[in-house]
Amino acid sequence: MKTLFTSLTLVFLSISLNAQYAIEPPKGYTNDIGNMISMLDNLKQRVERIVTKLDTKQTDFLLDDNANSPGAIIYHLAATEAYYQIYTFEGRGFNEEESAKWEVALSLGDNARKAFKGKPITYYLDIYNEVRAKTKELLKTKDDEWFAKNNDGMTNHWAWFHVMEHQANHMGQLALITKRTPK
Q1: Using an 8 Å Cβ cutoff, are 30 and 144 in contact?
Q2: Looking at residue 148, what is its pLDDT?
Q3: 101-132 per-position pLDDT tens digit
């Protein structure tokens, strides 16, 4: 029992030291947009923590024939965020050039299993970082009135909430996959 208590205490302390206990808008953003940036960045940091030490074999790991690799999932997160940049800031979907760049990652599946392999995790994280930097740059130019604006059936706020929720779902998937990767 003492060992269990000690283990639980260590887990709690580890969580406490790494936890973010406040959602606060970073400087330069309006309140609601800044709070969303705070949450998006916190989730991104946790996603990165799960995958950052993967070698290339682990980055390409598939649980089964229908699974997606950690690398493909990170690319998918970037593609989803890139889509919502265009949707919320320009009011459109991908054009032909953007589709060529993002569609395989957005859709995943067989094409992604073929296309996304043989690269280190940093390759995928660099793409994710580039997309997030652009998101933050674009959101800095908007205010909470824009955030609340309806954009073809959903508010911009809801669209970015969806990006966050999507990221959180895949964070759980990545945690499961990385626990199963060969060491």
Answers
A1: yes
A2: 96
A3: 999 999 999 999 999 999 999 999 999 999 99
Residue-level pLDDT at 55: 97
Assigned token pair, 14: 């580890």
Q: Measure the CA angle with vertex 158, ends 156 and 159; round to 5°.
A: 65
**Is pTM, for the whole model, over 0.85?**
yes
Specify whether the backbone of 120 is left (phi greater than 0), alpha (psi in -120 to 50) or beta: beta
**Single-letter code of the amino acid located at 10:** L
DSSP secondary-structure letter at 24?
Answer: -
Dihedral (CA of 12, 71, 135, 79) sign: negative
Q: Which is nearest to 36 in space by CA: 173, 155, 171? A: 155
- Distance separating the N- and C-terminal Cα atoms of the chain: 31
Angle between helices 156-180 and 70-90 (to 10 degrees): 180
Domains and CATH numbers, the chain: 26-180 (1.20.120.450)
The residues near 169 (Cβ < 8 Å, ≥ 6 apart) are none
